């Protein structure tokens, strides 16, 4: 660890071995690492990412790259929430790249990010999908600590996400939470402490998006939707699902249902949740 913070790198490459997907390449530097791959679903390779001890602070630099090769199927998640702590002025940075080859499937399902009041963070995400590849990835943010009454009054989170299909840019968007955009503003989070976005690229994405829109509307009075506001949009082969919530658990349940519906479409059966989520 340098005086300016951690510098951590993690590179993963998944390949199809015929009977199962294997972690073909694993390179790490610093406190980013993974546990041994697991196979609770036959040939699908489940990998749990381990983050820097104690969370991320100002000055830390994290670099994460993951590729899933032709015919392979990877699922990546985390064993716990990722915490971003109050900064004394330095900015933490996270650079992540996901590459999905033709006929490959990648699922990026981390547990929530918790941004403590005073967090300063820059996030840069690139997602590259080839035709015939499928991607499902989400980010769930708890801004402040609502359970403790800590409001995100100071700090700044800036994020840029770019999604490419066959190297054609189909989405470029920015996220800004904090200075210049209050959590309570109508164009921001409308006083909800939890925000989430899921990106989905797959065949018949427009049909799936319509199903989600119908579910969100028809079940808005269901107890799972009591504390959430959800919406889905389809454009240029990409579906974007967005949500706001009063608590992480409600958001997580709803997004998990969206993921299970998507996987059911891909594989013909609804998956159980990763075991680590039940610990």
UniProtKB/TrEMBL annotation:
Q: Quick one: signal sequence residues?
A: none
* Protein's UniProt keywords contain Chaperone: yes
Q: Which GO terms describe its cellular component?
A: cytoplasm
Supply the name of the protein.
Answer: Urease accessory protein UreD
Q: Which HAMAP family match?
A: UreD
Quaternary arrangement and interactors, per the entry? UreD, UreF and UreG form a complex that acts as a GTP-hydrolysis-dependent molecular chaperone, activating the urease apoprotein by helping to assemble the nickel containing metallocenter of UreC. The UreE protein probably delivers the nickel.
Q: State any single GO MF term.
A: nickel cation binding
Name the source's superkingdom.
Bacteria
Family recorded in the similarity comment: Belongs to the UreD family.
* Stated role: Required for maturation of urease via the functional incorporation of the urease nickel metallocenter.
The alphabetical list of record keywords is: Chaperone, Cytoplasm, Nickel insertion
Q: Where in the cell is it found?
A: Cytoplasm
Gene symbol of the encoding locus: ureD
Q: Which InterPro entries match?
A: UreD (IPR002669)
């Amino acid at each position: 660890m340098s005086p300016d913070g951690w510098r951590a790198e993690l590179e993963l490459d998944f390949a199809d071995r015929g009977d199962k997907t294997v972690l073909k390449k694993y390179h790490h530097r610093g406190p980013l690492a993974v546990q041994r791959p697991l196979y609770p679903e036959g040939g699908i390779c489940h990998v749990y990412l381990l983050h820097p001890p104690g969370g991320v602070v100002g000055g830390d630099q994290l670099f994460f790259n993951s590729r899933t090769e032709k015919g392979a199927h990877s699922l990546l998640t985390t064993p716990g929430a990722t915490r971003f702590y109050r900064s004394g002025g330095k900015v933490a940075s996270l650079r992540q790249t996901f590459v999905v080859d033709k006929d490959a499937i990648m699922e990026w399902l981390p547990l929530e990010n918790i941004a403590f009041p005073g967090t300063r963070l820059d996030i840069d995400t690139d997602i590259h999908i080839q035709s015939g590849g499928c991607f499902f990835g989400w980010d769930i943010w708890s801004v402040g600590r609502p359970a403790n009454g800590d409001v995100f009054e100071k700090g700044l989170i800036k994020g840029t996400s770019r999604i490419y299909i066959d190297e054609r840019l189909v989405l470029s968007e920015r996220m800004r939470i904090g200075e210049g955009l209050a959590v309570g503003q109508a164009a921001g989070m409308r006083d909800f402490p939890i925000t989430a976005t899921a990106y989905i690229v797959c065949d018949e994405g427009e049909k799936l998006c319509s199903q989600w829109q119908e579910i969100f509307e028809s079940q808005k009075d269901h107890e799972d939707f009591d504390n959430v506001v959800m919406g889905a949009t389809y454009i240029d082969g990409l579906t974007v699902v967005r949500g706001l919530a009063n608590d992480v658990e409600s958001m997580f349940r709803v997004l998990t249902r969206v993921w299970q519906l998507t996987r059911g479409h891909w594989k013909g059966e609804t998956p159980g949740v990763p075991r680590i989520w039940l610990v």
